[in-house]
Amino acid sequence: MRKTHHLPAIHKTFLTIGSMLAVVSLSAQTVTIPIETGSNVIVLQTDSESRLRTVYFGEPLTNESDYSAISSLTRLDDDNIGIHNAAYTPAGTWNLVEPAIQVKHSDGNASLELKYVTHKRERIDDNTSLTSIQLRDPKYPFNVTLFYKVWKKENVIEQWTEIKHTEKKPVLHEKYASADLYFSNKDFYLTTYQGQWAKEMQPTETKLERGMRSIETKLGARAMLLQSPNFILSFGQPASENDGLVMLGQLAWSGNFKMEFEVDPYENLRFISGINPYASEYSLVPNQTFKTASLIYAVSNNGTGEASRNLHSWARKYRVLDGEGERLTLLNNWEATYFDFDEDKITSLFKDARNLGVDLFLLDDGWFANKYPRNDDKTGLGDWQENVKKLPHGIGHLVQEAAKEGIKFGIWIEPEMVSPKSELYENHLDWVIRQPDRPEVSYRNQLVLDLSNPEVQDFVYGVVDGLFTKNPDLAFIKWDCNAVIYNAYSAYLDKKGLPQSHLYVEYVHGLYKVLERIRAKYPKVPMMLCSGGGGRGDYELLKYFTEFWPSDDTDPLERIFMQWDYSYFFPAIAVDNHVTDWGKQPLKFRTDVASMGKLGFDIVAGELNEKDMQFAKEAVANYHGFKDMVWHGDQYRLMNPHDNDMASIMYVKPDKTRAIIFNYLVNYRQRLQTSVEPIKLNGLDPSKKYQVKEINLYPGARSWLNPEKVYSGDFLMKVGFNPLVNLNRTSVVLEVNEVR
């Protein structure tokens, strides 16, 4: 049993209803604050100058009182120039390294000192606690509060900062990071994910050397197009699936971000993460609180597999909208029609959705605008009325016709954007982000609306609210965001006398305000987050969305790699995968790959041959039988496609009675005759007995595997099982069931 740490008599303890708050007053005594999960701890401690430092990162100690002894082992002297393990490093005073916060006070002074004042730890429930630590400048009425929200079982921490002052005039914030972490472990390996359109989540692992490595974006909207805010930090060795100390996480912010990894001359690492200060100096008025973005991370002593499973569990339970609920399988019309459709063509596709056995039909881009009809991607964005030529009876008619076929109906919108050729642009030019005296620069023939403007927020909210008010049975929204921000300038901020450097921040705040209003009125309607592919996908937006679209590249071979890399950070229930005509693989391969998440189809189902249609219907029926394991089970990555000719991914039901395993040939150049070695399974109960059956067989195909043979869980995890993948069996799906 862990011993309770008793604070010195000078410290004060308060009881509040439902929780205990340990509040420690400023004193010369050392204050020790452990931020502790089930398997890891960050220990913060004051020094003789009352500055808060990070003094330990590692496995928790048995006795909490032992943390206070760390202070005697972490003394720094004047020779340690640049070694500053501050928990939140200020600029302009004693610090000579990269700061976490940099300000200019109302009197023009550019120095900042932060000293410990008090802290409290609040118990939210049996698994969740929140520690807040107040720091203050001794010369200015300027306060910084560090927050650490901990989910003990999942070993997940959410970290953010709140800044407030009572100076007479605004204080200019030149940098305002979310987190400032310090690690004294040697040898650090960082995995980051670069990309571009249709090439998202391209991993790069590097050993961090002395100096600074920065990961950032300056795109404004669709901020993650070229650089992901997700990262894996491995300690002592390259990241490994099943062993080693790793930190795995992301900055949960939907705009410009920056992550800085700096190894100092003594081989220590400082990690500063937050909103990108690029063109974003923020003038904070007195008594206003500025809350930074959240850094969310899972820590594991047993590799990336355990860390990602913990992050998945946390996300489903605490973050993703309806993360423990259900999802709708669907048929989308985009690749079947593009912009070329009318009412009859769309309603004729409803039968295809019914025949496939999916839940919903999704009408994509092209259904709106009349003066400048949306017949291509050059016009109409912003004019969100039904196109009377294409849809003379409106959306309501489509909802009713879909219901007659036993399916639900959903619709695509892109409400943050505007086409220069639109009525909205003509009537509300002041709503558009644009430099008034510069040539316009569009992206994909569109511009971004200024969501810092409350009128624009009302308009964007009204797009969604209007659809649901007129069509209460509308069952799904696909929310797209295809443009980046050029010529960053807000007519609204100028009118209000506010700095233009607020735009990038207030755009994101405005987006969140709109989504909060939508969810207050429509709390559970499923919404897909899309951004020309994976230009958006973060845990702040996923408070409001049930799922996100990872990439416009739906080639199943490429998707195996993308979905593998996304799986480190997101549970399968949050990732949308569609069967399309991209790629050269057969329908079975494409469908199997898309089944590792939320399944959808974007094909002309009515043109499938008899066997393909038979397979598709059976595969959808099978999916409805195992989707609960994929959505809510524990994921195990068994064979990495980046390192092998095969990929193998497994989802295990929490009670370990069932599992589903997806196996694919990914290297056709080697002309693999058959997989020669068994793949060791994971996550099963070693004492249980199991049978392994192949499913999703193409009509006429026969499995080579004996479904009657019984294996122990111990055997399957130590010896393994051979799925017999080869050039004739490029995709093999196995169902594992307990034998009782």
Output the keywords.
ten-stranded antiparallel beta sheet, 740 residues, alpha+beta, disordered N terminus, globular, 12 helices, eight-stranded parallel beta sheet
Explain the overall architecture:
The protein is α+β, with helices and mostly antiparallel strands and 740 residues long. 19% of the residues lie in helices and 29% in strands. It contains twelve helices and 37 strands. The strands form seven sheets. Strands 7, 8, 9, 10, 12, 13, 15, 16, 20 and 21 form a ten-stranded antiparallel β-sheet that branches. An eight-stranded parallel β-sheet has the order 29-28-27-24-23-22-31-30. A hairpin with a 6-residue loop joins strand 32 (634-639) and strand 33 (646-652). Helix 6 packs parallel to helix 8 and helix 10 packs parallel to helix 11 (610-632). Residues 1-27 have low confidence and may be disordered.
**pLDDT under 50 segments (min length 5)?**
1-27
What's the helix count?
Answer: 12
What's the average pLDDT? Answer: 94
Proportion of residues in β-strands: 25-35%
Largest sheet: 10 strands, antiparallel
Query: Which of globular, elongated, flat, extended, rod-shaped describes the shape?
Result: globular
Structural class: alpha+beta
Oligomer: single chain
Give me the count of strands: 37
Distance between the termini: 38 Å
Radius of gyration equals 27 Å
Helix percent reads 10-25%
